[in-house]
Write a structure and sequence with these properties.
- With about 280 residues, the chain is an alpha+beta fold.
- The chain has one domain (about 10-20, about 35-270).
- It has eight helices and nine strands.
- A hairpin with a 2-residue loop joins β6 and β7 (about 165).
- α3 packs across α4 (about 175-180).
- The longest helix is centred in the last third of the chain and has 17 residues, at about 255-270.
- It is globular, with a radius of gyration of 20 Å.
């Protein structure tokens, strides 16, 4: 997971600044979200309620003391000449034969929509002698996130709609999830997921969101066409032997929040809240 090692003090200050500090120049509105209460999934404590500042604290704590970590903190300006904000965080510890590798990344909306995380991903590449069992991983995943919507193709998928995890009839227990994960996804379950709306697959949307190059315009079109409000995907790539896990990938995408935040950001830009400099005339 790509990262640049050097971060300036200016960038650090911007990351640490909570969204509320932007309120003097920008009207901050909280976007709608797919998740609420106990149904709000997180990855290492980072949820779609987290802003860049709180997420940065988790990143720093997790990678503290890991000298070979690569760090990439991406900034954007909100409007022309507007406020700078952190749009993405990417921390990566490369794997080696004796060391497990880890990547943590997150993408955030603008200050106008509270700088919230709409995409969070964590990749773990286990060293050969540190690979956990697939059974233990599934037990821990279901212990934290509950019963998945659909299991197969090396994934456990949690599809959220109207604040709840969708069910398509598969009442998975740990043993049945372990049996199903290596098989193809059940096409009948996929049909039930899309129902009569003939809308896009949430599984396909989260897979494309995992791509290294994320084009917001493309993501928005796909998000609007998706037949869900949010997705949590856990992929468990078999290790050696096959009952171990070589790679674990956790991905959280708040589809509803991404759509809502984009609308808020566009409205703020159209109103001129973020596009004009705020300086006063000098003394003459």
């Amino acid at each position: 997971m790509p990262r640049h090692a050097l971060v300036s003090l200016l960038v650090m200050g911007l990351v640490a600044a909570p969204a509320a500090l932007f309120a003097d120049d920008i009207k901050v509105r909280t976007p709608e979200t797919a998740f609420s209460g106990k149904m709000r999934p997180d990855i290492l404590g980072i949820s779609s309620e987290s802003d860049a500042g709180s997420a940065r604290g988790v990143f720093d704590s997790l990678f503290k003391g890991r000298s070979d970590t690569k760090t990439d903190i991406q900034q954007q300006k909100f409007g022309s000449g507007g406020t700078s904000y952190v749009s993405a965080l990417n921390f990566n510890l490369p794997a080696s034969p004796k060391q497990s590798g880890e990547m943590l990344s997150a993408s955030f909306s603008s200050p106008a929509s509270a700088n919230r995380a709409y995409f969070v991903a964590r990749n773990l590449t286990f060293a050969p002698d540190q690979q956990p069992s697939k059974a233990d991983m599934i037990k821990d995943v279901m212990g934290k996130y509950g019963v998945p919507t659909i299991v197969g193709d090396q994934h456990l998928y949690y599809i959220y709609r109207k604040g709840s995890i969708m069910s398509v009839g598969g009442k998975y227990k740990e043993a049945t999830a372990l049996e199903a994960i290596a098989k193809p996804l059940d096409p009948r379950a996929a049909v039930k997921l899309n129902g009569d709306t003939v809308r896009g697959s949430c599984v396909a949307v989260v897979k494309r969101a995992q791509a290294k190059s994320k084009d917001p315009a493309t993501m928005l079109a796909e998000a609007k066409g998706a037949n869900c409000d949010g997705v949590l995907s856990i992929q468990l790539v078999p290790g050696e032997p096959g009952d171990r896990v070589g790679i674990a990938q956790f991905t959280l995408l708040d589809v509803k929040q991404f759509i809502s935040a984009t609308a808020i950001d566009n409205a703020a830009l159209a109103s001129g809240d973020a596009s004009m400099p705020t300086g006063s005339t000098p003394k003459l």
